[in-house]
Design goal:
heterodimer; A: about 210 residues; alpha+beta; 5-stranded antiparallel sheet; B: about 260 residues; mainly alpha; two-stranded antiparallel sheet; 2 strands; about 0% strand
Chain lengths: ~210, ~260
């Protein structure tokens, strides 16, 4: 049995319509997914530009408060702490784990406030998002400077309780997670976990002259 | 070539060969045992401590004084000059890595900067689309499949693979063929200028590091990997740190079916 030409045309139009809707839906879903993955990175960048622009006007504490909210909401600190401490994590009691996470957050926030302390029209530019293993993504960005070459800032992002969160920052090829893991392991191995906490407290104190 | 220069060349070759052989053995041992990138850590730490002390009390203060005294345009020109002098090594390694287009561009860059840039004092090539590239023999060996080898700390961080760059970079530097009277002071200026360019990075390191030796080593090894891949290493390489058996052995922190790490 053959279809009349106008019916064939109708079928073709319907098929084309469905395909177009499907493609648009997939494309929209992909865009939404990419935006969700990039969201914590974009929020971090917005806050960094904010504390740079207000460096001359606002106190260290005021800028610290801005970054504290951003870091606590957009970084998966428990996972970061666990990966950094590696095998030592399992040997710690709950209080020690929480003490370390708290100190690590304070150090991260203080470091951001200390380093991003002037504004010369710098900006962040998103480059791409690449899938890694096990539902982790690498968000590639660069820090664009008016007076120098751009600096590569990449982020590993993973979903935690239906929310995408940053689990590592890779600045100019140097993965903060790997770096801290090696650095902190050396201290724990040679001096013990208590010495690590003392050293972190000292680093925070040096970064926070006003607190 | 003078007898003095030949003697220096021989010393360089012997030193590099000995280093590669000695540490090459150690590397194999390290990899066979547990993949430790730094099997020579005790010896490296001794050299690191001596170098850091020398740097803290002598080289860094000189570099800081140099920054205070020499205006930025002067320091930029000094950096341009030494970058240009060492650029023949970059060109050689472009071709050894099969980057022919980049090699030709770098040859043009060297010619432009050496002539229109007045012996390389001014970088006239970057604004016209011929940027400074960073290639060396260590990166070339990496593209040929040679592993990083053992980490070494000599006058700075390096490795058994990367230290081999000393041979082509020295032989291809025109200043190597000048007499010692000119070579020595110019090398000193180069060293001070290089240290001055690293002041910001070393200050950030000192601010962030708890164990300065380990921090320097990790940063160096990661930075080298980044350079080997021309600033674009494969994303999957960053997954290694999450494939830790420490997690898999822990029942309370096992991986879910979806592969996500579950935090208590």
């Amino acid at each position: 049995m053959t279809l009349p030409f106008h019916q064939f045309q109708q079928c073709l139009k319907t098929l084309l319509g469905i395909t177009t809707v499907l493609i648009c839906t997939c494309s929209w879903a992909e865009t939404q997914q990419e935006q969700a993955i990039q969201a914590p990175v974009n929020k971090l960048h917005t806050s960094l530009i904010n504390i740079m622009q207000t460096a001359d006007k606002e106190s260290f504490q005021a800028r610290y408060d801005v970054m504290e909210k951003t870091v606590l909401e957009n970084f998966d600190s428990p996972l970061i702490a666990k990966v950094i401490l590696g095998r030592y994590w399992k040997t710690l009691d709950e209080k020690s784990k929480l003490d370390f996470i708290n100190l690590f957050n304070r150090l991260t926030i203080s470091t951001y406030v200390d380093r991003f302390d002037s504004y010369k029209e710098q900006s962040f530019k998103n480059l791409s998002t690449e899938q890694m293993k096990k539902n982790r993504y690498l968000v590639k960005t660069e820090f664009v400077r008016t007076d120098d070459e751009p600096v590569s800032f990449n982020y590993i992002v993973q979903k935690e309780n239906d929310k995408w969160k940053i689990i590592s920052v890779i600045a100019d090829g140097i993965n903060d997670l790997s770096l801290k893991r090696a650095d902190y392991s050396a201290i724990i191995k040679n001096q013990g976990f208590t010495a690590l906490l003392t050293d972190l407290e000292e680093k925070i104190r040096l970064l926070q002259p006003e607190l | 070539m003078t007898g003095w220069r030949l003697f220096n060349l021989a010393k360089l070759l012997v030193l590099t060969g000995m280093l590669s052989l000695a540490t090459g053995c150690a590397t194999t041992q390290g990899i066979n045992n547990d993949g430790d990138p730094d099997p020579l850590e005790p010896a490296n730490r001794v050299v690191f401590n001596v170098t850091e002390t020398l740097d803290k009390h002598l080289i860094k203060p000189i570099a800081e004084s140099y920054v205070d005294l020499a205006p930025l345009p002067v320091r930029t020109s000094v950096t341009n000059f030494f970058n240009n002098l060492g650029y023949l090594n970059v060109i050689l390694n472009d071709f050894l890595q099969g980057k022919f287009e980049q090699g030709i561009t770098d040859m043009l860059r060297f010619t432009y900067n050496s002539t229109f840039g007045i012996a390389g004092l001014f970088d006239v090539s970057t604004p016209i689309g011929m940027p400074l590239n960073n290639e060396d023999f260590g990166q070339t060996l990496a593209t040929w499949g040679v592993d990083q080898g053992s980490y070494l700390y000599l006058l700075g961080p390096t490795s058994t693979r990367d230290v081999t760059d000393q041979v082509p970079s020295t032989l291809l530097n025109p200043f190597f063929y000048l007499s010692g009277i000119i070579f020595a002071p110019i090398s000193a200026i180069n060293a001070i200028n290089t240290r001055a360019n690293l002041l910001e990075a070393s200050n950030i390191r000192d601010e962030a590091a708890l164990d300065t030796y380990t921090f320097t080593r990790e940063a160096y090894l990661q930075q080298r990997e980044f350079l080997v891949h021309d600033g674009n290493p494969p994303a999957t390489g960053y997954d290694d740190i999450f494939n830790d058996s420490d997690f898999a052995d822990d029942d309370s922190e096992a991986e879910s079916e979806s592969g996500m790490l579950i935090i208590e």
